[in-house]
Design a protein that fits this description.
This protein is of the alpha/beta class and 262 residues long. Helix content is 36%, strand content 23%. β1 and β2 form a beta hairpin.
Length: 262
């Protein structure tokens, strides 16, 4: 079980995350949804220890992140919203580096890596420098490296951005299979249809606060006359809802989370 309790984060005068509490149970996929600047990336960075919360507590499978950060970080794998990292390394060098960090045994590295490279069609590219990769290829190599130590919890910030349809489908299948084995997946997304088809629960965040946690089915029953996009706009208090002005610009299904922590 993953528990976030009363998380707060301030940047200057801006309250980026305001008293966020969220529970993830074993065997579930949770979609983290919200407008640009809502606090998704900031929350995920606190959950992974990249940012330190001003207030609140994070417990990963019974391990308090503040009290034992190394042990807590061994419980998860993280795919950030920025794949433009370690670009001077070859793909295979980056994968081996992550394996060394997490202590993946040599006896399992080769087969696991070869299978993931084949699955994501990166076998030939893995010997090239990450700097030469397209955005989608960089995304795939970071996903592969993240999965190498077989973490119980997957934390992914917009993981499907830039992926081709085949790789996106494969990742969604792996997420479902991982959860079905009693593990947990938490990922942020702008694509409401993905959340609808894939998630066991969703958490909607707006202006740093959680405005809804539960199943998408239950949320839709609360607003039976509204479309999925209209429900999202209602829950996030969008000014565009009246008259439907600017609907497409408010819900950017191909967008990214932007500068949340700025």
């Amino acid at each position: 079980m993953i528990e976030l309790s009363g998380l707060c984060k301030q940047f200057g005068k801006k309250r980026a995350v305001d008293n966020v509490s969220l529970t993830l149970n074993e065997g579930t996929i949770t979609g983290f949804i919200g407008p640009n600047g809502a606090g998704k990336t900031t929350t995920l960075k606190m959950l992974t220890g990249i940012l330190k919360p001003d207030e609140g507590r994070i417990v990963l499978n019974g391990i308090d992140l503040a009290e034992d950060p190394v042990a807590a970080k061994e419980e998860f794998g993280y795919v950030s919203d920025n794949p433009d990292l370690f670009t001077s390394l070859k793909g295979v060098e980056y994968i081996k580096f992550i394996c060394d960090v997490y202590g993946v045994e040599e006896s399992v590295r080769k087969d696991r890596m070869n299978q993931l490279l084949e699955d994501f069609e990166m076998t030939e590219a893995v010997s090239q420098k990450i700097a030469s990769y397209s955005h989608g290829m960089r995304q795939k190599i970071h996903i592969i490296a993240t999965l190498m130590h077989d973490p119980k919890l997957w934390i992914m910030d917009e993981p499907m951005t830039g992926l081709d349809p085949q790789s996106s489908y494969l990742l969604k299948k792996k997420m479902r299979d991982h959860a079905n084995k009693g593990n947990m997946v938490l990922f942020s997304t702008h694509v409401l249809e993905v959340a609808e088809k894939l998630c066991d629960q969703i958490a909607i965040i707006n202006k740093g606060q959680i405005t809804y946690t539960g199943t998408l089915e239950a949320l839709k029953e609360t607003y039976p006359e509204k479309s999925l996009e209209e429900i999202f706009l209602t829950v996030t208090g969008s000014r565009f809802l009246d008259g439907q002005e600017g609907l497409d610009s408010q819900v950017d299904t191909d967008g990214r989370d932007g500068q949340e922590e700025a």
